[in-house]
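Appendix B. Raw example, untouched.
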Amino acid sequence: MSGPRPKTCAACGRGIAPNAVYYRFTLVLEGEQDVLGPSGGKSSEDELAALMKQLEEGSESPQELEDQVHWERSGVVCAACRSVVVRTLSAPPEPAKPH
């Protein structure tokens, strides 16, 4: 019987020793929009047709478009990178302005 498979930190790329503490993560980013722009008098069918034309003529592949709406990753991070990841994904101290 062999030991556990070697693990690699998703943040720094270093190998994690079998006897070292590591942290599992799953990150899911899902695109959402609360308010749609003004329709400018266009019907829903016209807006949908315009959107379909834009998608068909665009340079993005179907995978790129899908990744803009749903992106998911999971893995492990080492103890040294855990604090960096937590700090990066924690809420900012003050409310940020919209991009």
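End of appendix B.
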